């Protein structure tokens, strides 16, 4: 797929830290319970750390106790791209930033969380940047 923001690999490597690059551009996963936004309750908008696209809001963030920030819906349906992921012997749905194609995490359905969508967007903190709401 062609993305609005399309940079050569060398440029992504120069702009992102090694840890950010491993997750955002190589579909890695940060260790559970280590990300800066796992337990954050601040109000605001979560954007893609690679390109700044607005992805999720604090209104849809919930505590799933899975070790990563969880959201039940993206800010805008077009903000994320969902792709079937059959790596690691599993069938999952990968979540990518629709603007730059960066890996964000995975989305799961039917787990029984009391959310309006019954979905859990399990997102790596390192893929996000929180812009706190101005009160």
Automatic annotation (TrEMBL):
The record's Gene3D superfamilies line, in alphabetical order, gives: Peptide methionine sulfoxide reductase
Domain (MsrB) spans 9-133
Superkingdom per UniProt: Bacteria
Any one GO molecular-function label of the UniProt entry: peptide-methionine (R)-S-oxide reductase activity
Swiss-Prot/TrEMBL catalytic activity: L-methionyl-[protein] + [thioredoxin]-disulfide + H2O = L-methionyl-(R)-S-oxide-[protein] + [thioredoxin]-dithiol
Q: Which PROSITE patterns match?
A: MSRB (PS51790)
Q: Which SUPFAM superfamilies match?
A: Mss4-like
EC number, UniProt record: 1.8.4.12
Q: What class of enzyme is it?
A: oxidoreductase
Keywords in alphabetical order = Oxidoreductase
Q: What InterPro entries does this protein's entry cite? A: Met_Sox_Rdtase_MsrB (IPR028427), Met_Sox_Rdtase_MsrB_dom (IPR002579), Mss4-like_sf (IPR011057)
State whether keyword Isomerase applies: no
For this protein, the record's NCBIfam families field holds: peptide-methionine (R)-S-oxide reductase MsrB (TIGR00357)
Q: Which PANTHER family match?
A: METHIONINE SULFOXIDE REDUCTASE (PTHR10173), METHIONINE-R-SULFOXIDE REDUCTASE B1 (PTHR10173:SF52)
Q: What is the protein's name according to its record? A: peptide-methionine (R)-S-oxide reductase
Q: What organism is recorded for this protein?
A: Streptomyces chilikensis
Source lineage:
Bacteria, Bacillati, Actinomycetota, Actinomycetes, Kitasatosporales
């Amino acid at each position: 797929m062609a993305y609005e923001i399309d940079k050569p690999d060398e440029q992504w490597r120069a702009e992102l830290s090694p840890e950010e690059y491993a997750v955002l551009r190589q579909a890695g996963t940060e260790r559970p319970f280590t990300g800066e936004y796992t337990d954050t309750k601040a109000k605001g908008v979560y954007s893609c750390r690679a390109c700044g696209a607005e992805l999720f809001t604090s209104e849809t963030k919930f505590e799933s106790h899975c070790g990563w920030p969880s959201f039940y819906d993206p800010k805008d349906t077009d903000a994320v791209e969902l792709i079937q992921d059959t790596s690691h012997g599993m069938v999952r749905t990968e979540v990518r930033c629709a603007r730059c194609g960066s890996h964000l995490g995975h989305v799961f359905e039917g787990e029984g969380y009391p959310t309006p969508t019954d979905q859990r967007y399990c997102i790596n903190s390192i893929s996000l940047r929180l812009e706190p709401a101005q009160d």
